[in-house]
Write a structure and sequence with these properties.
Helix content: 25-40%
Shape: elongated
Number of strands: 5
Low-confidence stretches: 1-35
Structural class: alpha/beta
Strand content: 5-15%
Largest sheet: 5 strands, mixed
Strand order of the largest sheet: 1-2-5-3-4
Radius of gyration: 19 Å
Amino acid sequence: MKKFRPLLVLSLCGLTLSASVAAQTPEIPPPAASAAEAVDLGKTVPTADAINEGLFPDDKCKELEASGFKCMGFKPAIKYSLPATSFKVGSAELPATLKKQLDVFADVLKTKKNSDRKVRVIGHADASGTPAANQALSIKRAESVRDYLVSKGADPAVLVIEGVGASEPKNPAKPKADENRRVEIGRK
């Protein structure tokens, strides 16, 4: 029985593998297990390519089709959680680490001006305050992020803000935990 080389087998299956793909290490954590979960960036500052591929995976299909290839589908867009423990209790002020991350998102979003695709900015709060106060605070956090992205060149028409208060804690066992105070960015 003949032994096939892995690359030949992949070619027979209609797949190709770039040598650089196998050698790459992930620039961001792998996608979450479900669409409802978000990839937590923590304090890492991702690359613009990683954010572009995560938020707009359909662009890769368009590139393939423009080069004459057939696109057989693409992975779903990633929702990012920015970053755990980024906001102080009761505050919508953007910390320096968060601004560095948002700078990368702004660089990507600048290239999506006049797009019909929408990006959701979702503010979250912990359970420290009343439900009404947490709802208002979560909206303020989303607005702070949107305003910062717009100040860096993102198209405001692409950004949709939403506040969910303390209704979607990242750590349900500890409703007042730091990681529940966050903003998530993902495709609508």
